[in-house]
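Below is how a single chain appears once it has passed through the pipeline. First comes the sequence as given, then the structure the pipeline wrote out for it. We keep one example in the README because the format questions we get most often are answered faster by looking than by reading.
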Amino acid sequence: MVNRIPVFLGVTGRAMVGIPLRTALVLGVALSAPAAMAQEADEPAASTDGRLPDLVVTAQRRDENLQDVPIAIAAFSADDLESAGIDDLSDIGTVVPGLVFSNVVGYSQPYIRGVGTNATGPGFENPIATYVDGVYYAAQAGGLLSLNNIAAIEVDKGPQGTLFGRNATGGAIQVRTLDPDYDFGGKASIGYGNYDTVTAQAYMTGGVASNVAANLAVGYSRQGDGYGTNLANGKDVDRTKNLAIRGKILWEPTVDSSLLLAADYVETDGIPTLAPAPGSIPQFNPPVASDPRDVYGDPQPYLHASQWGVSATLEQDFDSVSFKSISAFRETDYDSLFDSTLTAEPGTTFFITGKEPHRQFSQEFQLGSIDPGPLNWVIGAYYFWERAGYLNQTTIGGESFALYGLPSGILQAPDRVTKSGALFGQGTYETDGGLSLTAGLRYSIEQRKIHFVETLPDFGFDSVDVTEAKTFRNLSWRFAVSQKLNPDVMAYASYNRGYKSGTFNNADPTLYPLYIEPERLDAFEVGVKSELLDRQLRLNVAGFLYKYDKMQTTTYPDGSLVIINGGKATLYGIDAELEWAMTREFSVTGGLEALHSQYDDFPDAPISVPVGLPDGGTTYTTLEDGAKGNRLAKAPPFTAFASFNYSREIGAIKLDANVTYSYNDGWFAEPDNRLKQEAYSLINASLRLGQIDDGLSIKFWGQNLLDKDYAATLASQTNGDYIQYAAPRTYGVTLGAEF
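Resulting structure:
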């Protein structure tokens, strides 16, 4: 297991790039984003001679040592995530500085270094692309993954527009699940925690024939009690239940060829809540719950999401090149209802329902070099098809409409189709003197179509019926140069172009722009990667500069989501990462990111203004300078984590203990910088006792032990500012067995 824990260097005052540190970091600057995954998920933190093991990553679509890749990367094995108390992809920001992972009523919205999106709904894609076993997950509702059957997770920071494409303006999150093994084995666990939470997981693998192996993983969790109560009806809210099943079959007809078939199914049921943000007065000034996690809601909210997918990965090695094909189909269905007025009061009900089906197909071909030599290269072609909309017309309505003389509801039915194709290639040439030059290009063509219908059922006619199509063409690139200063130290510099294609709003084009232009990001990065103290200490530092143009930004002027292009922005900062195997029993890892972000130009930025008493709610205006000079949304000036791992064998028992600390300096919700999540700290801890031969084990764990109330999402809207809270303090015990 690669253990991660921060080392404090005793530096106080101000971080690099002139950003003040908070009192939580008076002990110093914690160096290091998570190091990177070991080649095997269960590889030990140090080799038998006490040195750190090589860490293998796939940011350049081939297996490489982390120290040879000129990219800032954070990566974890399954054991790393379990030790740090990370059991859901939305929690990974706890151990990845610079990553803010929002969860909005079941939609995943990761931000890396201030790059992300608040847009939710059919056809809206994240600029942080998520891949599972090389398959792109386009649907936001499919991005909240429970971490069952995970081998490793890798977060590639910065634009990944050459080898990954598909709108990866700000980075990529790669999830790798366990492949089948010919040796029979498995593991199982059952756990119980507060809020009457039950968890169970099982995994089994083994050979089926001499050249065929298979595995199966099942995970289940049920939260019996909600984190809050709907005071309007006395029922629990903020409660979830999950079921995840994944299986693979590996066929290796020859030593040079393999076919990996995979299938998965995930189902989530929940009761999501949007509560009034602290200090917000909802429209019509109805009663607000005194407990921030309680709500008044009518009707009772619900969420049901399911997804399934199949994929086939074919690999064939020839004399000097390797061929890979990845074919995949996915279906995601999302169904929800939530109260948008934030509180229940007769005559003020306003709710939104939506049944959102999403279908996608992707096909990728790769051809790459095999033989070690001065030139390593990969070329490929990619095709993607997607259809997303509403199965039934979504309802936006309620009794409050009557107060404005409006119909009892509005039915909206967007139907969106995307087709995208790309050719890409990247090569690295290394000289005898340790100088490496990397160049990559990706040319993509993408066509987006929308048919949007808005119906007023009380009046019996369609107020909007529009059909539009748009084709986008783009050339993205990556250039990098690196120099081995000695066998253990490498310096590098890179320039990357990130791109996200344009899109259409699900809104009345007579009121809001129908067409949204593409966004573009130019990223410059310099860094040093080093291994010191006879490979017992790994220290990597990277500085970056972003020039961001026409960013796609969201606003809620009438309670409906509208996307606009947000002008220009500049971001710069520093990442640092350190991993130290201090002893055979104690290891230390930590990470930090200091970030400066600023809008250079945003003249039409929406400015939200609280109405105040007696009416409540929010109104919107614009100012001459707009958001110029403001910080970007979800871009905290400083983030850090610190994880301490201790492992010791006592007779036939092995003890593993972990304490993970995470700090976030706070972030603004929107470009006007009015709503803010203040700074907060999180502490997770675990203690595991198990048999050395991987038999029985018992684990005691706790997450968010400080019981901090902090936002998973925060935004303004006409009905009032809303917040969705992350999970409060949770704790429990898990019994496990391995065989």
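Residues 1-48, 346-350 have pLDDT under 50 and may be disordered.

See the next section for the split statistics.
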